[in-house]
Amino acid sequence: MPTMMSFRKLCLLAALLAGSVLARSTSAQDLGIEVGSQAPAVMVHALDGKQIDLGKYIGKTPMLIEFWATWCGNCRELMPALLEAERKFGKKVKFVAVAVAINQSPERVRRYIAAHPLPHETFYDTDGKAAGAFDAPATSYVVVLDKSGKVVYTGLGGKQDLEAALKKAL
Predict the structure, then answer these.
(1) Domain, as residue range, for 9
(2) Residue 45: CB partners within 8 Å, gap ≥ 6?
(3) Looking at the 3D structure of the chain, how many domains does it have?
(4) pTM (2 decimals)?
(5) Where are the beta strands (DSSP E) in 6-157?
(6) DSSP SS3 for 87
(7) Which residue of 35, 41, 71, 158 is surrounded by the most CB atoms within 10 Å?
(8) What is the pLDDT of residue 31?
(9) What is the pLDDT of residues 50-85, one digit of tens each?
(10) Quick one: pLDDT at residue 8?
(11) CATH code of the domain in which 85 resides
């Protein structure tokens, strides 16, 4: 008999996979957490296992959060635009990646980051609470917050205009 935790993970996996199909057929659009709402403060884990409160970042500076996975094709497609946006806006905007806990482990994410170093912090959403709080419809989901912590953009898929999204936050 499946545990409640495995049931939640299965539900999250189903939602993320359904969203992945949607992401293939659409470009970036407002999805997930409502634009204009205040971003939730949620707990995630650093890749070393330490618990991290995302709320310590929210409301301090504009912020870009990407929900991603090592196996996500749309995430790989989005990566050049994400890295270029971070190169251009990294001194004004906090960039954070949140790896979802579907079909990957913290160890798998650590190995991926070792092989493909990223300039921003990467966290692990062990129990899916961050994805749930931000209403992440799939991986390659981006949320941009202004410096007050208000959601100014959400987008999904490998083709997002992150520069335009970030300009909404500045």
Answers:
(1) 4-169
(2) 51, 52, 106, 123, 124, 125, 126
(3) 1
(4) 0.82
(5) 43-46, 51-53, 63-68, 94-100, 121-125, 141-145, 151-156
(6) helix
(7) 158
(8) 74
(9) 999 999 999 999 999 999 999 999 999 999 999 999
(10) 44
(11) 3.40.30.10
